[in-house]
Automatic annotation (TrEMBL):
UniProt-listed InterPro entries: DUF167, YggU-like_sf
Family annotation (HAMAP family): UPF0235 (MF_00634)
Family statement drawn from the similarity comment of this UniProt entry: Belongs to the UPF0235 family.
Entry-linked Pfam families: DUF167
Signal peptide, first to last residue: none
Protein name as it appears in the record: UPF0235 protein PAQU9191_02576
GO CC terms, sorted: cytoplasm
Provenance organism: Photobacterium aquimaris
Superkingdom, natural source: Bacteria
Amino acid sequence: MSANAVCRHGDDVIIRLYIQPKASRDQIVGLHGDEIKIAITAPPVDGKANAHLAKFLAKQFKVAKGLVHVEKGFQGRHKQIRIEDPKQIPEPIASLMQ
């Protein structure tokens, strides 16, 4: 398992993601190299995929959408996301954390 995919920074969680847009459903797929693969239904057009990803992750981590930040990779499939003070960590991600 990769320690680089997920880490804690204070109360925040930083996740390196590989995004698969236009999928049949939203889901956390699992490890993809040194990143976590997430499939989302939104197309990669006009920031729709990033907005949809933020909404999906906010629901998974039980935080407001405003607490999910794209730190790197705004226009690409490889992203670094910061989630401020998550109330819950989804099982596929929690299993990668030490």
